Batch of 2 targets.
Target 1
Amino acid sequence: MDYCHTYADLDTRLYHKQPPVPLDNPRAGHFNPYVAAKLGWDKDEDLMARWVEILGGHYVPAQWTPLAMVYAGHQFGHWAGQLGDGRGLLMAQVRDTDGHCQDLHLKGSGLTPYSRMGDGRAVLRSTIREYLCGHALTQLGVPSSSALGFVVSDTPVRRERMEAGAALMRVADCHIRLGHIEWIASFAPDLLASFTDYMLDTYYPECRDTPVPVAAFLQQVVERTARLIADWQLTGFAHGVMNTDNLSITGSTLDFGPFGFMERFNPSWINNHSDHTGRYSYQNQPAIGYWNLQQCLTHFLRLPNIDRATIDACLSLYEPVFMQHYQIGMCQKLGLPHNQEALNIAFEFLTLVESERADYTNSFRGLLALIDSTKYAYEQTLLTTFINELTPEGLSTWHDWRERYIALMSKNISAAEARMYHNNPVYILRNAMAQRAITAAEQGQFEEVARLFTLLTTPYDVQNIATTLDTTPPAPDAWQPPISCSS
Ligand code: AMP
Ligand code: MG
């Protein structure tokens, strides 16, 4: 692999260099051949032969420079002070086959100076959820970390019950969080200028060619975050813990905990069991993204050339960029070009899906059957289910809407078909799917993880390895159960 270690050369206050603490008897869970190919990992015989040892913390390749990063953050709206990699290590930085730098981060690798009250470990349950979700989002086209693979072990880990310790090799374009800036501002403000230079040169080099590079960089951070959260809303993804230490400066999904994908559409849905006020509910995500950026960007006032007006100008881009990206995406889900008429009809449909508590993913995908019910036989079954579950009022709204929608969509039916196909997945990672894979894995069976991995690799194509359980939401009167924060 082509290494590009740069973080390990930064000021030593920013990290603690240490090897992982080995897991007991690590065994293969699953290996991601796509990530391996992207990294060039698959061209290295030693890495291929010893990947389980590496993920289990028993072998660190000679060129690697494992370190725990320090950062800080606001958790649930409150300043949490110093945090850091309490159970993960940045193991190496690698230039991928496209020339982009990628971080290899081993999660579940044991105690570090930043572990606070934790044990430094990750359990199999949350490891599988992160592994499958990173893959699912990546394949849906949503910027996200994904993982090279994961291992399970005999190391016992206590959560609500005793569970198996596991480790995941997370691969992300960047592990610098908004919370890194907050840590520097509070604990090492003399580093802000050089750390900003590092972020600019490493992740936003194009900003160097602008009159005020730091302002251009901050603008990009705001825009990428806005687009990411628009993608989450369009996909129905709820992150669950949008603390400032869980958002990357590159606008890529990081740190999966009690996340979920929307099933029956309910904008106020809260997926995190510990989120008692709904701060991180699905519908609050756009506002929280802005709040997080505000906390972070204010610290750049310390730099020359950056004043309040500059920060405000950057932040003011958030809402229009979010709205533009979300609205275009919503029109595409209906196969329509972006205009006011399309938006109106899209939001009418969303309102119907919400009031009827229909499944978000299946409702959109089922619309393909309106184009050709023979070619889209599977989608016809979704549409039939959608219609059969409608209330009498819902049914009459649907009939009226359907006529107007077909008239609009028929203006360019082939463009509509392509847009609808590529913007409405058949498969998302429903909580119950992940749970079935976890239950089997806890018995030593990883075939279900492998099957879901394959299913989520091409989420827009109907596949014969799917079962009805993969596409069935909870019953109409059942709440989508929240997920425990423990991991
Ligand atoms: P999270 O809410 O998962 O983003 O974690 C918040 C902070 O707690 C991060 O600094 C983590 O590294 C740390 N942390 C979470 N779980 C553990 C654990 N089991 N052991 C040590 N640190 C942990
Ligand atoms: Mg975190």
Note: The chain has a mean pLDDT of 97.
Target 2
Amino acid sequence: MTEREQSAMQDTHLSILIVEDDHAISELLGSIFVAMGFTVSQSTHIEHGLALVQREIPEIVVLDLGLPDGDGKVFIEQFRKISSNPILVLSSRVNEEEKVQALNLGADDYLTKPFGLSEMKARVNALLRRNKRIGALESTFSFGDIQIDLQRRRILKKNIEIHLTPIEFELLDLLLKNRGRVVTHRKILTELWGGEHLSDQHYSRIYMGHLRKKIEEDATQPRFLLTELGVGYRLEF
Ligand code: CA
């Protein structure tokens, strides 16, 4: 986190809800988020977590999926009825399928346990940044040798304009708008080709291949357009 982000966060005292029944993890997260300037509320159960949300909607939720009174996915469904604020899911390594289901239900990103603390901070900041940007209409980006102007649909690589096909552009646009967080294959297929192509996962793979050749220095070792195995893609810069 930059100093500017840190002070902006401390000024506003954003609220975060942690729903996690593992005491050690919950306590650790609580102290990190307090140190980051958040107002933290915590719960170990779905029902209690939802009761807290009814009182005050948190700016962001960190949610464990295996909870004593049921599946964390139930929380996602209920929370999405009242808020579009970001949900970061904590999933276990043994259940890969679970995180994809959670993302499809409306979670925004996930971390697999055990996770690093800096990774946790980065994910939470990326989610908050994105939530703020929806109003801010950010439309120019630069990373590596690339400069992008979304409004003018212009992309420069080492100051030379590169041409993207409409679908490649839509894919890049979608990833940029979700910068720092995973975009599932399902989301890509729905946004770019419509819901009837949900089984055509190779579409997103093919176009990601094209996009990497144009954007990355070395398409076989991507630095920015990253694969989340079995889940989707993430644009990181
Ligand atoms: Ca648990």
Note: The radius of gyration is 19 Å.
